[in-house]
């Protein structure tokens, strides 16, 4: 009877050891399946973030969202591997972590959309405004110069330049005399007064 009880206890102990091994194997498989599931979820999240940040308005938040996604993945892996809570507690923590990241990412996307400034359009508008102002100033100066000048240039040219003279000839220019290889002017150079003369 005692021998049968001892053999039963040994069989029971070996059965419990086998059950412990099966439970450890099941936990390892569950851990690996959770990691594979997390890998697929975060791969899809990378693609979704890329799609949402492909516009000019949201492109600037892409690096921050990717950094936040990597931190979320590391925290989730730490929760799966290092915590000793039951499966329901781990699932609750992981879902809370993912929901927090989703809310923060959505807030950052909305902030980027509503605070976006297209500097190319602003620069184009500013350049267009400056061109209009410069053109207006040039028109104003041209009109004021024409109003201030009471000289009729066409009549002045007709009266001071006779028709029988060639306009290409300069009567004040003297041809230099050549002595050897040196050029010596025939007379001193005449200075021209280039200031505007007012004719009355």
Outline the secondary-structure elements.
Layout: H1 2-52, H2 62-82, H3 87-114, H4 119-148, H5 153-160, E1 177-179, E2 182-184
Antiparallel strand pairs: 1-2
Helix pairs in contact: 1-2, 2-3
Describe this structure in words.
The protein has helices at 2-52, 62-82, 87-114, 119-148, 153-160; strands spanning 177-179, 182-184. With 200 residues, the protein is mainly alpha-helical.
Brief summary:
The protein is mainly alpha-helical and 200 residues long. 69% of the residues lie in helices and 3% in strands.
Radius of gyration (CA) equals: 47 Å
**Terminal Cα separation, in Å?**
148 Å
Number of strands: 2
* Proportion of residues in helical segments: 55-70%
| Strand coverage percent | under 5%
SSE topology string: HHHHHEE
Order of strands across the main sheet: 1-2
Structural class: mainly alpha
Specify the number of helices.
5
Mean pLDDT: 76
Outline the low-pLDDT stretches.
none
Largest sheet: 2 strands, antiparallel
Shape: rod-shaped
